[in-house]
Amino acid sequence: MLKAGAGETIVSRSPATLPLERVLAKLADSATAGNVVLKKGSRLRVSLSGAWCPALAVTIPEGVTRWEERRQIALASAARDMGTDLGQIACEIDAVAPGAAAAIALPMREELERWAMQLGCRLVSVAPLWATATQSKLSRQRGIQGLLVIEPDAATLIAGDGKHGFKTTTLPGEQDAATLYAHSQQWLQGLGLEDSGFARLGFGLTAHPPMPTGPKPWAGHWYSA
Amino acid sequence: MKSLNIDFVADKRWRGVWAATAFCVLCLAGAVALYWHRTDRVLRDIESRTATSQQQITQLNARRVIVADPRQASAEQAVQLLRQDLNKVFASAENLKETGVRLRGLTLDGSAGALRLEFELDAMPTASVVTAALNGGYENRPWQLESVTGAGGGGQIGFTSAQVVRGLWIVQVSKL
Which residue of B has its CA nearest to A102? Predict the structure, then answer.
């Protein structure tokens, strides 16, 4: 999906097996076909779905407070969970909240940078969409302790531990409602959380009625699940 | 629930903030260094001038010729004379009531602090009487007969001349 300013969102569907390079090229072609012009030097913000950038649970040992140490631990943990080498992935954590981490393949980031350069744009942000969802009014409401972000290709569960920490997990692939409900209930019970403090946000490729408590980026695509 | 902020691209806005901060800090440090340098230069200049002035003062002091005051000695002598108590001397001379003894001269040597009395005596033995009279009341016997000279006849004209002698007594004023 591509959106320039207040213009219409360009949606380009691609098979999951298509290489990213071609996915991006196809998206750019769709934008050109839809008369969406990206100005040279404009800032490009990329939101990655849970399938591209899964949420990972990282356990940071107590006493480790330095940012770089926590980042290295998260990277090692992500590489172990994803079954890959440290040099193959990039892992980022929240500056203050331990427990949640996001990882992407390094070639993907390089491909995104190359694509932005080809478009003449400045790549200023590459962030997971589920992390953006936690910045919504809905998830920041009092009493909300957990959030389920349903995307077309993945579902991500995020829960705060009441202090600063987070627990996260991503279920890749399209999930049917029953399975997702059962899994989320089980996950909530495992954390000792109640269903009443659990919010559900859905992200759709097609436009939905505006959601005042939804995230501001990609507004019009969020819905209450 | 708190929000998560995860991004794979570092926020470059902070670089601008840091760069601006570093620039400000550098400017401040530069200004402080410049101010310090100027102050140091002024201080060195002042020290240099002070040293030069001190040197000049020393040279001028070395060249200075101490001119002795010609009145210094006489002034000191005058002060010394004023301090001397001559009442006792005069009292000794006045209290001498011996017959045949006449005071002929009084000499005060201010620099030596000595006073001389010259008496004319009718007879030589009177000299010892005069000495005893002058030393009356003093245990240390300050008056001393310095000399006795015969004056020959010369006393009263027309009378049979007796032997007239002149005795000179000296005393240190400070001993009285």
Answer: B6
- Please judge whether A160 and B1 are an interchain contact, meaning their C-beta atoms are less than 8 angstroms apart: yes
Reported in sequence order, the residue ranges of chain B that DSSP labels E, i.e. its strands, are 101-109, 114-121, 144-152, 164-172
Which residues in B lie closer than 8 A to residue A161 (C-beta atoms)? Answer: none
Q: How many Cβ pairs closer than 8 A exist between chain A and B?
A: 56
Backbone angles phi, psi at A164, to 5 degrees: -115, -15
Per mean pLDDT, which range of A158-162, B153-157, B167-171 is the poorest?
B153-157
Residues 6+ apart with CB under 8 A from A109: A90, A126, B8
- The partner residue sitting opposite A127, judged by closest CB among B1, B7, B12, is B7
pLDDT, average across residues B147-173: 69
> Would you state the pLDDT for residue A193?
82
Ordered DSSP codes for A90-147: EEEE-SS-TTEEEEEEHHHHHHHHHHHHHHT-EEEEEEEHHHHHTTSTTTTSTT--EE
Measured distance CA(A138)–CA(B56) in Å, rounded: 87
Binary contact (B12, A140; C-beta < 8 A): no
pTM to 2 decimal places: 0.61
- The interface pTM score, or ipTM, of the predicted complex is 0.87
Give the other-Cβ count within 10 Å of B84's Cβ: 16
* Disruptive mutation site among B6, B13, B14, B15 for chain A (greatest number of A CBs within 10 Å): B6
Q: What's the confidence (pLDDT) of residue B162?
A: 58
Q: Is the model's pLDDT at B55 over the cut of 90?
A: yes
